[in-house]
Write a structure and sequence with these properties.
single chain; 71% helix; globular
């Protein structure tokens, strides 16, 4: 299977690990709010990686860059309430399965030092 991925900053990676661990615990629902915030952060990071970063690399004009930023912000604002409602309604078992799905998406990349 071929996958696309994007890098996440170390602090977000640490939050991913903590939330996944909590979701595997005795009371996953206690971590629902953290999960909502995590999914929001991952969504924003992914949208930036897949849309804004390529636009910046292409060297488009400032108006186009700002249009992309506004569009991404609007998309995030539109999707977040739906994600929040769904994530907060999941059962403990569903949250555990979601944790498994998220974990399957994680890829640790070891970067080799330049010689």
């Amino acid at each position: 299977m071929t996958r696309m991925s994007f890098s996440i900053p170390p602090d977000l990676a640490g939050e991913v690990d903590e939330v996944l661990e909590a979701l595997r615990g005795e009371e996953p629902r206690r971590s629902a709010f953290r999960l909502v915030r995590l999914v929001q952060a991952l969504t924003e990071t992914g949208l930036e990686a897949y849309f804004l970063t390529p636009v910046l690399r292409m060297g488009v004009n400032p108006v186009a860059r700002q249009s992309v930023r506004i569009g991404l912000a609007a998309a995030t604002r539109a999707v977040f309430p739906i994600m929040k409602r769904i994530l907060e309604s999941l059962s403990d078992e569903q949250l555990r399965r979601l944790a498994e799905s998220l974990e399957e998406m994680l890829v640790d990349v070891v970067e080799e030092e330049a010689a």
